[in-house]
Amino acid sequence: MRDKKFFKPSVIKQWVIVVYESERRFPRRAAEEMAFGFCQGAVSVGMQVMDSHPVIVYENGQGVIGEGRQGVLGSEKSPPNLMVVVLPEGGNQIYTAVKHFGESLPLSALKSNKCSRAKPQYWANVMLKLNVKLGGINSVLGEMNAALNDPGHPTIVMGADVNHPAPGADGRPSFAALVSSVDSTTAKYISESRVQMGRVEMIEDLENMCKAAIGKMFPQNPGDADKTGNCQAGTTIDEGLGHPTEFDYYQLTHGGLLGTSRPAHYSVIYDENKFSADAMQSLSFALCHVYARATRSVSIPAPVYYADIVCARAKNHYTPGTDLDLSETATQVSHAEGQLQAFRAGYKPLHANMANLIFLFPES
């Protein structure tokens, strides 16, 4: 990220820091230094920070997280557009509770041992995730794919995934997610998620999820190897390995950092656009370059990555302390349908304030 700027940097108008670590372990001076490093990191990638001296509040992580959050926001004259939370080491339970009550506000959760005296690269990585949460765009393709950038035929790109409970966790639901692009650069995505019957791979409510997504659309030889010995990113094989009659191919889209890189297998299920093989392969390769958390291409298209992240964080849509058993070891067998209805009833959809922002990333 050195000397690199975001394509569309966001603006932090007003923000607040909430520390769930004890003041003895994370003193106020450390919090102030952290805020300074945060601001420097934001400015280094082109973001604007209107308030360089945010309010710093210490909260008891053993108390009621939701009440603490409401108290912090209620004390501000105008609501902040960002909350930065400092978590203690091993504060996973606090993290889950904080993420639930942060559904209505962009939130960045940082571990106290990582953000204290952090180096510029750490803050650059934090900003990669934070910028898109605030409505910015990190990067776009230098040369847009013709299939994506035709003003006369706008294109929406979707990614879907289903997350299943662990083996033996009978009665627990699966979570389905759909992410959809909302701009011509395919760099900005919104998401929809649903609760459905456990271990069902077919997305039950896909039609309504697609309708919701459309309704949110916005205008607008060794010498050939890379430095690790792998094939160059973009290598595509569509003969010899694929299905004898179906439209499929293998494509390596990312440069390996260590070990052997693994290509992704693409199968075209339905294509009403009648793309040629070259056009389809160029499209999938292009989509591997717009993943917001990376400055290089990744192994699978960004919308598929995003859908997987939305599924993984679906458990945060339940109120902490709920009677619903979300543990991986739950083994209740009876009344599976009734339990599914309970999970659906308790599932909190994405807050309206966050509906048009990319609300996908787990924190550092």
UniProtKB/TrEMBL annotation:
Residues 111-183, 216-319 form the Piwi domain. InterPro entries: Argonaute_Mid_dom (IPR032473), Piwi (IPR003165), RNaseH-like_sf (IPR012337), RNaseH_sf (IPR036397). GO terms for molecular function: nucleic acid binding. It holds the Pfam family ArgoMid. This is Ribonuclease H-like domain-containing protein. It comes from Gymnopilus junonius (Spectacular rustgill mushroom). The lineage of its organism: Eukaryota, Fungi, Dikarya, Basidiomycota, Agaricomycotina.
